Amino acid sequence: MEISAPGKLILAGEYSVLEGFPALVTTVSRRVTLKTSNRRHFSNLWSFVGKNKIGYFTINSNDFYENNFKLGIGSSAASALCMAAYLNSNNALNIALSGHRNFSLNLGSGIDVVASYYGGLIEFQLDQPVQIITNIFLNNIKFFCVFLGISQDTRFFLDSVLKFRLSNFRYYINLLENLGKLTHVWKNFYTIGLDILTLRKLVNENNNILRELGKKSGIHIINEQHECLQRIMSQYGGFSKPSGAGGGDISLCFISSDFFEICRSNLKKEGWTVLDLDYFTQGLLISDNLN
Question: Are 34 and 116 in contact (CB under 8 A)?
Fold first, then answer.
């Protein structure tokens, strides 16, 4: 048996999804692969997903690394989903959600597991039905990802944000509500398209909220590398924003299709790690044959 599950990118609603506001997420063409084996598997994640069960499999998450740096695209969630499908393919999502939630010390919303299961472009909201978006339309604007060279500790960032939540809940929830309200505009971008001026305003508003959230939480959600990349993107009429927790991991870059290739090429020449990814990819795959 071979099982695989994709990584994910948070496109909108970062952090605000923790408080029940909607978020957008897509899957990418980096996959965890599990294969049945005569070798017994041991790992901390498996102890939470499989509990006391014995598993005979190998699991490969090499796709989730770039130049020996781990990318923040949901390797543990994809791995948990593969393990859950190994246990019970008919109940893989629920098993993975439970196991990964316990593994993550109840931090996180489960959006990464849900994305890996369904694949494609998804609107996610706590305790709400998952909305799978099929009419993806980016007009004359393309996006790509740049890895900024820091494998961010998401748990540390979440802890920092939650400490701010305890110290000033009213200000905290106001920030996240405003961030969550942007998700429907981001959804318009991916489904009906936005003009370049509206997109610029959207990215700026999104980033300003994240800067303020980081400042109040004592962390750099948008750090110097993000700011530097944004300045370079602006030279091509483009924009950038963090994906997920931020902090120097992955930045989403938006650019007119007219400047897409030259922008990516010049970034690579200047030493930036531009990721070659496909987006909106297929979710969990299970094969009984290894042919």
Answer: no
Nearest by Cα to 36 from 2, 11, 6, 5: 2
**80 and 164, same structural domain?**
no
Structural domain boundaries enclosing 197:
141-275
Beta strands in the chain (DSSP E): 2-12, 23-40, 56-60, 65-66, 69-70, 121-124, 131-133, 141-147, 239-242, 250-256, 273-275, 285-287
Reduce the secondary structure of 142-165 to three states and give it as a string.
Answer: EEEEEECCCCCCHHHHHHHHHHHH
Q: How many Å apart are CA 79 and CA 76, to the nearest integer?
A: 5
Q: What is the pTM of this model?
A: 0.94
pLDDT per position as a tens digit, 67-100:
888 998 999 999 999 999 999 999 999 999 999 9
Complete DSSP assignment for 95-106: HHHHHHHHHTTT
Domains held by the chain: number: 2
- What pLDDT is attached to residue 152? 73
62 plus 146 within the same structural domain: no
pLDDT digits (tens, 9 = 90+) for 100-109: 999 998 888 9
Q: Could you give the dihedral angle defined by the CA atoms of residues 248, 230, 219 and 65, in that order, rounded to the nearest 10 degrees?
A: -10
Residue 216 has pLDDT above 50, yes or no: yes
Residue 153 shares a structural domain with residue 131: no
